[in-house]
């Protein structure tokens, strides 16, 4: 690759973008003006904030009269100030009564009566429903008498007969409207007041009964926050800044990407650039650097403008009475901004490459703008995951793209450098791999004439379906392969819901067998089989069943399954250590294993869990789906995507990861041998070995095979893991077999041949 050409294209794209007024407004004007204007608006609006007291309708206040021992609760139209931590807070609650007209449903009187006036509960609840009051506090009839009985039972505790039953304890009632925010807040305040008043009643009873007050409260709990003010503010910023920075990096990359790709298609200047001496790869890199520049600048300018504006606004709001007593949020530490700037570079590269690939696929700027939502759907859950309770930086989470980087940034901003240090390498490695894959995908988009020069299309469902059936090819297209994956996942979702509704608390083998059969045949094999018959002219070629494999291929598949199985078992254990099973999932796995053990025939579990998945899953994922994905033009991309689809079809996260890794091996076996039969053999043997090893592990737990022949191969702890020497031998054997498979001549698709020719031409250039 000629970097001088990349530099020239980068300079050209930067010049064009800087001449565009819309780009300049998005990059410079919006951050510098929008946030100050928003801050000024917030500050102006805060001046109109007024504390409007919530109205509390008290019904049955007369029940509190005539009991001099009771601590005071009401003070005119307010609660007693002693019942508030801050006496000024009692202004937030205004106690109200109602006239007889209100009781009858007529118009309200001009002035509310004093608290304690006779008002029925039905009338008060009507006022609550109409929004005239926010809370109704109801003391039922006989409330005062029952309080007196409770008091007497304490004073006369030497007489057991004087103790009332627990059902006779007085219970005031409080009604509120949870759909109304003001009513919900008022309910919380009234509930706190009543708790403090109840404490006062209890203390009065204990004091009069000569019981020490500390008998009801033997100790005080006073938690002390050891975090400094700076650390508390850093914890707040650590949750806000990475999320905002990544969102701005994405939006800052998306719109320039649409303009430099889809926009050039509309302006007709893309053909001139493609006709230049620059290679497609150099053009893609030049545009990528341009998009990265705008992504980084947009994120930094938005971050700086928001930070300064937020600092000023929060300082001003702390002086407003509505926010009195709240500390102004200080700016984040300088070192945290340095970490954000460092993390912004790979994130901008990742987002820019994704945006470039999507924009290159778009026919026009209008279509390109529609692709922002799929990008957000992919990226946003990875960022929102970091805000879930209990999510912390560990090895498992550090291997999740974007999520691990956000968690690492949070730890760095909070100053937890020693805790974050062990996970720097995994996060950096995963981020760089994602960046390289995204950039590679963007390069591929520019190497495809069918992508760069897509013609406008009008959707006609009737003609489209006729085209699919009439003009179908020998094998499925890439789109049809993706559609098959989507169909399998959708059918799985609804079938699993239906089966979950039918299942009872206790599983039996019959129901489990039906569930496995339906999940394999109906959810996986049936969609792939129907699409094969509808959309392909040569179903046997699509499913790679058009020729019988060589005996050597079958032998290698069987040996490979034997060598790969211990490695796969060890890999699954590592995955479970990274992402442990939840108690619910562990219970489901245990119940599944116990139910399988109830099989009336020893061979039925092997038929259900080894042979049936080997046939159904291979027909779908290494048959129809892999055949469609191979039209991408890259053997390894097709194998990788089909492996990911294979993993997604499994239920638990741990199974998905292990199955995706295993799918890479089966995919290579399918492509190199050109037949699905070795894949089925490998799959059946691998699953069968899993079941057999589980049985052996169970016998180890019972010490039935202690000091036996199998102890040479398995660890005698009941875990089903293999000895180290077995893993080493299997690793060497699998490496030799995979190397032999890789050197086998295989039958490439037309797209793969074209890609090989293109790569040879680029290498020669």
Into which percent range does the helicity of residues fall?
55-70%
Mean pLDDT: 80
Supply Rg.
35 Å
Low-pLDDT ranges = 98-118, 160-164, 321-326
Strands of the largest sheet, in order across it?
A: 4-1-5-6
Give the biggest beta sheet.
4 strands, mixed
Q: What is the tally of beta strands?
A: 6
Overall domain count: 3
From the helix content, strand content and strand pairing, which structural class follows? mainly alpha
Oligomer: single chain
C-alpha termini separation: 9 Å
- What portion of the residues fall into strands of 2 or more residues? under 5%
Report on this model:
- With 765 residues, the protein is mainly alpha-helical.
- It folds into 3 domains: 3-46 and 228-319 and 327-393, no CATH class; 52-215, no CATH class; 479-515 and 551-764, no CATH class.
- The protein has 29 helices and 6 strands.
- The protein has helices at 3-18, 21-46, 100-104, 121-130, 143-155, 181-208, 229-267, 270-274, 280-317, 334-361, 365-370, 372-384, 395-398, 403-413, 417-420, 424-446, 449-452, 461-470, 478-502, 509-535, 539-542, 551-578, 583-596, 604-629, 635-648, 653-673, 677-701, 724-743, 750-764, and strands at 54-59, 74-75, 78-79, 93-96, 135-138, 173-176.
- Strand 2 (74-75) and strand 3 (78-79) form a beta hairpin.
- The protein is globular, with a radius of gyration of 35 Å.
